[in-house]
Amino acid sequence: MKNLNELKSHQLKLQARYKQLIEQAYNFRQTDSAFSDISEYKAIKLLHKLNKLKFLDRDFSKISCN
Q1: pLDDT tens track for 21-62
Q2: Which of 8, 14, 21, 29 could cysteine-pair with 43, CB 3.0–4.6 Å?
Q3: CA distances to 11, 37, 42 from 20, in Å
Q4: CA angle 62-63-66, nearest 5°?
């Protein structure tokens, strides 16, 4: 159960960071396109991590239900 709570906590932190990066990329789209692209790239990498965590969360949910 502890691992599941840690996983959820980590996932929430990553989601907040992802939203921050996407907003940053959007805000700098017109003024600094290079910075915007970097932020978007970091957000995409973070989204990939979030998808992996979502997959692990699904596996933990199956185990805890059994």
Answers
A1: 999 999 999 999 999 999 999 999 999 999 988 887 776 666
A2: 21
A3: 14, 14, 11
A4: 90
Amino acid at site 18: Y
User: 2, 3, 15, 19: which is closest to 56 by C-alpha?
Assistant: 3
Residue 15, amino acid: Q
For 11-34, letters b (16+ CB in 10 Å) and e give beeeeeebeebbebbeebeeeeee
Q: Is the pTM higher than 0.90?
A: no
Decide if 3 contacts 60 (C-beta within 8 A): yes
